[in-house]
Amino acid sequence: MSTPRLRLINLCSALVGPFTLDLARGECLAITGPSGAGKSLFLRMIADLDPNQGEVFLDGAERRSMPATAWRRRVVYSAAEPGWWHDNVADHFSGEALQFAGDIAPKLALAPGLLHAPVVQLSTGERQRMALIRTLALASPALLLDEPTGALDQESTVRVEALLRERLADGVAIAMVTHSPAQAERLGSRHMRMEARQLVPA
Q: I need a labelling partner for 151 at 20 to 30 A (CA). Which of 102, 128, 129, 182 fits?
């Protein structure tokens, strides 16, 4: 059997878990459940952004074998409310990433000029799509997406889902939190719910 793209063994914290599961290349794990159940915390634990115990592997390499910054670029977490630390959008991209953003923006119905606009001029939906581009520019083999279409209309959601399917076809593994059971069925190779601090089949 091939090595899982992402493997969790007894991942837990004082609040949720333990979680043991494998995620294959090109597989999307869609996670639903009530607000406050621990869905976002689960993703953040995988990214090593919140305190946790257990083992996490990417393509057979243990998380503890690499610096945290390197791990977070390869197993990248995208928050439901993404942060912006520069005034202008373009300053969040560097080198080839800016070219990548310009190429992919039209796929998400974003005007290329928005890349050079102040962040405050972007709508909530535009910021969410631009933040997804920022995440995809890292070319990470595993993506942890927290409500990636939560602020989007139906047309923009369709565009985002099409882009994510392209990444899945390329072998990227995705764990995604969504409040839409329909989206979970559309994108998820597996659909699970967070209940009583555990993931259970939906």
A: 102
